[in-house]
Amino acid sequence: MAAVAYVVEYGMPQPFPSLWSVLGNLTLSESWCPHFAGPPSELLVQQAWTLVHELQFYLACGLLLLVPARYFLAGVIVICATTCLTAWATDEGYVNASGLMIRGSWLAFAPGSFAFYWLHGTKMERTVAILGVAASVIGGIYAWRINEAIGAGCVMSRVLIALHPLDARLDAMPQLKWLKRCGQISYSLYLTHTLVCGPIERWLVTNSGAQRVALNVTVCTLASLLVAWPFYLFFERPFMSESKT
Asked: Which of 31, 76, 157, 201 could anchor a disulfide with 115, C-beta 3.0 to 4.6 Å?
């Protein structure tokens, strides 16, 4: 899929990416691997940088799961502090942590953990999580000017808590069944949408900006769903448990 997306978006590469770049993209290490070996980072798919960070989130959480559960929240907080320190050191030029989640992107993920403990933690965990969400919202509003992804992740943690009492009611609404289906294939949609959105945005031209935006959004959405659904059926669903399909 990475090769197809690259050719669709940019055409045949000239020169062809190096073996280091190919290996870095296949192993989702291309954003940080050049710190140690190989040429400068060259991602073959636009959204691959988020997958690089996502893999780091999974590895960090997997390691935290190896310790007793009562220390998980403390581990999240320690990584938050490390991230803040590393982001400052990188901005000041003391270190170069580009491509690593401790450069800042962990701060977009951690508020989700705080939201979980706010809703499901013990009394002590809930107290700590409330403070964590409060700090996330305040920090997220500030970070929005610097990094919208971190800002949105932080603020979204409070939105999720506010909407939690409505979960069962929204889930039971037949009018939203189509939206649930979109949510079911959302990850496949995320992985494949650049295959169609890039060419469509270049090929569709209308007389006004408003018409172009409306047409692009409509066509890109429908085309992306048409591509994402079979991708979900053949590449994602076979690896899911029956209870989640």
From this structure: 157
SS3 call for 40: coil
Beta strands in the chain (DSSP E): none
Spell out the domain ranges in the chain. Answer: 1-46, 48-167, 173-244
| Three-class SS state of 144 | coil
| Closest CA relative to residue 8, chosen from 234, 221, 197 | 197
Q: Which two tokens stand for residue 171?
A: 């889930």
Q: What is the pLDDT of residue 19?
A: 79
Q: Where are the alpha helices (DSSP H) in 92-146?
A: 106-120, 123-143
Distance CA 42, CA 30 (A): 7
Contacts of 6 (CB under 8 A, 6+ apart): 13, 44, 45
What six digits make up the tokens of 69? 């559960």
Question: Residues 106-161: pLDDT tens digits?
Answer: 999 999 999 999 999 999 999 999 999 999 999 888 888 778 888 888 999 999 99
Q: Which residues contact 215 (CB under 8 A, 6 or more apart)?
A: 204, 206
Q: Which residues of 137-149 are buried (b: 16+ CB within 10 A; e: fewer)?
A: bebbeebeeebee
What is the percent of the chain where pLDDT is above 70?
87
**Six token digits for residue 117:** 């403990």
Q: Which span out of 43-47, 57-61, 214-218 was modeled with the highest average pLDDT?
A: 57-61
